[in-house]
């Protein structure tokens, strides 16, 4: 059997291959990740994230109910004309979402970035804090 590819079919085939390759590029693009420690206290959570090379203006932190989102971009200046033998320093956008066990109070968050370590102190919402209820005898 002989299959003849006409110019009309060729463009359709090329478009399908382009879409397939674009999807493959998106699926296998490298993602930056960073280590995080979460410490729970009686009244708050402390999150420490290792973000070397990131500037405070490149960070975005969002808090909604129990969700904490840390996103930003790590920029590395590389001269494309240089002939790298090895290039392992990561660069690009990053995004991390944490779900904490109780609702948070986003109005009183303390955020500090020092020596590449982001420290967030996020107080628990008032309704999430434990209360002591006194029982009386009748």
List the helices and strands and how they pair.
Blueprint: H1 7-27, E1 36-40, E2 44-50, E3 59-64, E4 67-74, E5 92-99, E6 110-114, E7 117-123
Antiparallel strand pairs: 1-2, 2-7, 3-4, 4-5, 6-7
Annotation keywords:
alpha+beta, four-stranded antiparallel sheet, 138 residues, Immunoglobulin-like
Textual characterization of the structure:
- With 138 residues, this protein is of the alpha+beta class.
- It has a domain at 31-76 and 91-127: Immunoglobulin-like (Sandwich), CATH 2.60.40.
- The chain is 15% helix and 33% strand.
- It has one helix and seven strands, in the order αβββββββ.
- The chain has one helix spanning 7-27, and strands at 36-40, 44-50, 59-64, 67-74, 92-99, 110-114, 117-123.
- A four-stranded antiparallel β-sheet has the order 1-2-7-6, with no helix packed on it. The protein has a three-stranded antiparallel β-sheet with strand order 3-4-5, with no helix packed on it.
- It is elongated.
- The relative contact order is 0.20.
